[in-house]
Design a protein that fits this description.
single chain; 256 residues; alpha/beta; Rossmann fold; seven-stranded mixed β-sheet; two-stranded antiparallel ribbon; 19% strand
């Protein structure tokens, strides 16, 4: 089974990997910025977007899904940018296939398990839509709002709604993501990746913390860090120009 993917631009290849509840469009602003000088590949991870659904979810499986896309396209060397859960997929890919990855950029995620359940309200909102079988997006939003207060989060999730006959349904595999949530929030320490690595943190986000530095340096000994001011976990959506500049500069400098 091949993941759904999109290609744009020409030059050295950069692979973009979205986070939980996302799709390949999430990093679209970054893709459009990079396509001037790069061949950009964006993927829908398994259980997301237009890719296949599976009850099996692990970072190794998701990394190998991406490896199969690159083999299919006969791309030997590429850089990787991953956000959130996609950052962990990117880290795993670099650990499994270090000879293929030229550079690694991780947006607001650390190579550690996260023990706090952050998404129970999101799952409740998604299930409310499944049970409510809305026909209009406004009705789906009302159902989600019973559980998810932030309009921005509801707006982000609603990008993955599609019309199946009369009813709106989710593109992602909600039941599978709930069942395998501990796999998604967990982490198995990986062998060191020695290539150039950049961790980009949103200043107001708590996903990368000072006490994660030891785990980061152990697994990514050539890692550097950059903080984007006044942003949270969705830094690439909140300050796209700043994030685009940071990623572009890293790709250029690390390549020389």
């Amino acid at each position: 089974m091949l993941l759904n993917f999109k290609q744009q631009g020409n030059g050295s290849t950069v692979l973009l990997i979205h986070g939980l509840f996302g799709s390949l469009d999430n990093l679209g602003l970054l893709a459009r910025h990079l396509e001037k000088d790069h061949h950009v590949i964006s993927v829908d991870l398994r259980n997301h977007g237009r890719s296949f659904h599976s009850e099996e979810i692990s970072y190794e499986l998701m990394a190998n899904d991406i490896f199969h896309v690159m083999e299919h396209l006969n791309i030997q060397q590429f850089s990787v940018v991953g956000h959130s859960m996609g950052g962990k997929v990117a880290m795993t890919l670099a650990a499994l296939y270090p000879e293929r990855i030229t550079q690694l950029a991780i947006l607001d995620m650390a190579p550690v398990p996260y023990l706090v359940r952050r998404h129970d309200n999101v799952f409740a909102g998604l299930n409310a839509v499944i049970q409510g079988q809305p026909e209009k997006r406004s009705d789906a939003d009302t159902l989600m709002a019973q559980h998810i207060q932030e309009p921005g989060v509801r707006q982000f999730l609603s990008k993955s709604l599609f019309k199946n006959e009369q009813t709106l349904e989710w593109r992602f595999n909600v039941a599978g993501l709930i069942a395998q949530y501990e796999q998604i929030t967990g982490w198995k320490e990986c062998p060191p990746y020695l290539g150039p690595t950049l961790f980009v943190k949103g200043q107001n986000s708590d996903y990368i913390q000072a006490d994660h530095k030891e785990a980061i340096m152990k697994q990514f000994p050539n890692a550097k860090a950059h903080m984007v001011a006044n942003t949270g976990h969705w830094l690439h959506a909140e300050k796209p120009e700043a994030v685009n500049r940071v990623i572009e500069r890293f790709l250029v400098t690390a390549a020389h």
